[in-house]
Amino acid sequence: MVKEAWTDKGIFEACGIVNVLIPAALLESYYPGKLYSPVSAWASNGLFIENGRKLRLSISSVSHGPESFFLASSGRELGWEGNGLTGRIIRFRGLCRLQFKRLMYSWGNAGGLLLALLSGSREYTEKSVSDAFRASGLSHILALSGMHLGLFGSIARFFGRKASGRTLGNALQLGAVCFFVYFAGMSPSLFRAFLAALILYIASLLRMNRPDSLALLSTCFIIHLIFFPEHSGESAFMLSYASLGGIIIFGRMFRKVYPVFIPRKLRLSIADSSAAQLATAPVSLRFFGSLAPQGIIAAVFVSPVVFLFLYAGLFACIICLFLPFLSGPISAIMNMLYFVIKNLVIFFSFE
Fold it and tell me: Model-level pTM greater than 0.90?
């Protein structure tokens, strides 16, 4: 968000959202293992860029075909948005995200995948693995979605209900969901999942019946477009709503198609994968130029291992927070799980 702009002739007020490309030399000095990380960020011209960070950038306008954007050549930090407690909270979030990236980097390739799953940052994810996820029809797993949000909230609800019953459990679940969204950032699929969790919590609080799935998704869709209309053109937005809509609308049909001798849980999983693949096919063709029907079967094998990886990663992060000397052994365990996920995804990518 631009708050002020200036040229050689003076300063003038400006307001709006622009796309600015930041050179790696300005950004990567804060992050371990990147090209410019050996240079001390505090002593160089590196920029710490996070949500809520105020920056003054020297930019130039660049045109590339029908699109125009800005390229930053230098800049300096001006502190954080907000005053008092608000500013300290925003700063604390930014520093926590930075430290989390450093911990994930210390875990190697497993940390790179866990970082992508929990915060949406893919700078440490192996390119070959990212490409394999897409080629195998599993790119939605790398997107922040209801799976990750539900996992985080369910853990909080479990402990809350053990401590003081349903009301506290639901409140802790919503609190955990809000924290996760604030920490990870407002991606389209994550905001959709957040809206659904919020509506379900309000319904539970008011002792209302659980909303119909399609009505709930439609409500989230309308609210989403009101708050973030710019998300409507993004692939993550389309894939998120299309996949869930497909499962709700076509899932029951596919459950009748597959033979009954297939075990029930496996049949339901394959049916939901088929419905999601059918609904997201136009989006995949539009943005990726290809379809990966093997994703129907791949999801059955890969998703459970990714769930295990996420659970293990969340508890591992908590353990390392209090017992940092265990980071080494935990890293070895996480990389064993990563090895299984990587080879499964590569197998189903047919590369």
Answer: no
